[in-house]
What we know:
The complex is a heterodimer of chains A (about 160) and B (about 500).
Chain A: E1 4-11, H1 18-27, E2 40-50, E3 53-62, H2 73-76, E4 81-87, H3 97-107, E5 113-118, H4 125-131, E6 141-142, H5 151-162
Parallel strand pairs in A: 1-3, 1-4, 4-5, 5-6
Antiparallel strand pairs in A: 2-3
Chain B: H1 2-9, E1 14-19, E2 25-28, E3 61-71, E4 77-86, E5 93-99, H2 101-164, H3 170-200, E6 209-212, H4 213-230, E7 234-239, E8 246-249, H5 251-267, E9 273-284, E10 287-295, H6 303-306, H7 328-338, E11 342-348, E12 352-362, E13 389-394, H8 398-411, E14 414-419, H9 422-431, E15 436-440, H10 448-456, H11 461-465, E16 468-472, H12 477-485, E17 490-493, H13 498-508
Parallel strand pairs in B: 7-9, 13-14, 13-15, 15-16, 16-17
Antiparallel strand pairs in B: 1-2, 1-5, 3-4, 4-5, 6-8, 9-10, 10-12, 11-12
Helix pairs in contact in B: 2-3, 2-8, 3-7, 4-5, 5-7, 9-10
Bound molecules: guanosine-5'-diphosphate and magnesium ion.
Amino acid sequence: MKKASKKIILLGHFGVGKSSLIRQxxxxxxxxxxxxxxxxxxxxxxxxxxxxxxxxxxxxxxxGYDDIKKTRASYxxxxxxxxxxxxxxxxxxxxxxxxxxxxxxxQYANTPLKVVGNKVDLVTKTYLKENKDMFGVAPxxxxxxxxxxxxxxxxxxxxxxxxK
Amino acid sequence: MLETYREIYxxxxxxxxxxxxxxxxxxxxxxxxxxxxGDDISSVSLFFKGLSAYFDVDEENDIKFTCIHLENNDRxxxxxxxxxxxxxxxxxxxxxxxxxxxxYKYYQxxxxxxxxxxxxxxxxxxKNKYLKEKEDFKNTFIANFSHELRNPLTGVTAxxxxxxxxxxxxxxQDYVEVIKSSADHLRNMIGDIxxxxxxxxxxxSLHEELFDFHELIDMLEFTYSVKAKQKNIEFxxxxxxxxxxxxxxxxxxxKQILENLxxxxxxxxxxxxxxxxxxxxxxxxxxxxxxxxVQDTGIGIPDEKLVLxxxxxxxxxxxxxxxxxxxxxxxxKGLVELMDGKITVESxxxxxxxxxxxxxxRYPINQEATSLExxxxxxxxxxxxxxxxxxxxxxxSELAQMAVLKILAQxxxxxxxxxxxxEDVIESVIHNEYDMILMDIRMPGTHxxxxxxxxxxxxxxxxxxxxxxxLTANLYDADKKRYKKMGMNDIIEKPFDESTLLKKIxxxxx
Lengths: 164, 510
Ligand SMILES: Nc1nc2c(ncn2[C@@H]2O[C@H](COP(=O)(O)OP(=O)(O)O)[C@@H](O)[C@H]2O)c(=O)[nH]1
Ligand SMILES: [Mg+2]
């Protein structure tokens, strides 16, 4: 059986935890040291989406930009899925969330997309409940790359959509 | 020679690879990555997996990628730009890999420090916002809580006044006096806390009125000369008589500013003199600019504490000798700024302090034509037209009922009806000819302000004109405005003492 491989891309401002989410998902580790990603790092992880189906996710960890339209078009070639990450503690990272998501769903209408609010370990549940309207778009997942909360769930949910 | 140099110094950093339609290597110059014919190009990097759709196209493409991280077999890392070229006809696909690791290493460092500083500033901003929210919450909480504290104090002060009128031994009289002055003191402190928190959440507003500024100063001079004499210190007000007599401003607040500054000076001065200087600087467009200074010869303030002096809840001298909340100066600053004025302080330890205010006050141009009707309200008692007045008290708290009852009983010109439930008030108003209603705001059933509105809309003449006075400890400006809008004539602030209550009642009786 030849395993299907699917390319997914993480987008979002710098420092929101894209690299950390990938590291948590692929290696089950987290570090609080911040090393800025420049360009692209590419990692792979095999994901079992059902007892008899495994796919390999080719995960592109992109440099974060504050404007999504600056992302080089070539990076996005042949992408099967997007993960848009923002940092729930920094408004600057979700100021344009609504616009960015509209842009992506228009440009890549058939490509599955997950919107993720990361760093939930830094805020309380009540904060999220009371401020969920503030993000502009209802996120699909609230994750913590630090504790691992919902990280696997999020990647696997996207993986399942890729093979539909 | 050139060839020798080339051999020593030229390190080509660019690799050329061709692949077939399934992505297997045809040729490679192995400059960076060692490859054998037939190797899957994805073994160089997973990067190429994303391009598999382009491996067997029969058309021209030139796709460029920048800054891709790759790793060779010896786990050596490269940061490269990659060109991916496909051709029409059966020509193989060409991959060109440029190693720009050095360049990108520098770029990484620049991006690192830029991003870190951006993130740090955003986190700081967030922290400040969070602190501000906490601060606002605290102030609102204090404001609300102080209201609640004032209610039970109504009972204490009111009953002290009542108790003092009963038969008591001189010793008992003294005890009551102590209770009363402690309660007054507590009330003042609660008042201060309430004011500060109102100022800080921006809930305090000014009420401009026309008043006699000279008279206010005379009154202060009289009061504080007496107080200063008791402490054996001199007190002087040097007042510029040119200053317009009539001023349009918030009289209560101006008085409060001056009182707080003088009280502060008195508190920290044990010998010497307190001088208040009030000078006119200039007049412009119906506004007079004044310099006010309060100078003392007290203990003074050390330089490093000078910046803290106007903060809430700081009393510089922590020795128990000086009682109080330490809020006086922060209230002064809040009020002065609310009036668009400025306050500064200069001080020398052991020599004394000087507080200086600069402020603009509005005044009517034609001072001669201005006059104030001054009729003390309690004096009006003597001009009343009826012998007995019917008063309705709508109030559910027994404590407050008793307080009003006892105070009015001593006066002897009142009949009092008491109703404890909002619902019954309307009934009673329709069937009785009252001269006045004293209305609690928070009552079971309907609230006092709502009741007032209902009464005002009844088709009975008396209901339109009867004075209705609110009894309440709810004293936000917004509330006051609402009560007036609902048709209430005046507000009696809880806790009230005998003279406040009587003053207001006589003021509104016809
Ligand atoms: N507390 C917390 N910190 C996180 C989380 N995810 C990332 N970080 C930290 O945020 C910083 C930026 O993370 P990084 O993954 O490099 O962000 P990227 O620029 O989006 O790739 C790093 O210091 C991480 O340690 C999280 O879920 N919780
Ligand atoms: Mg990153």
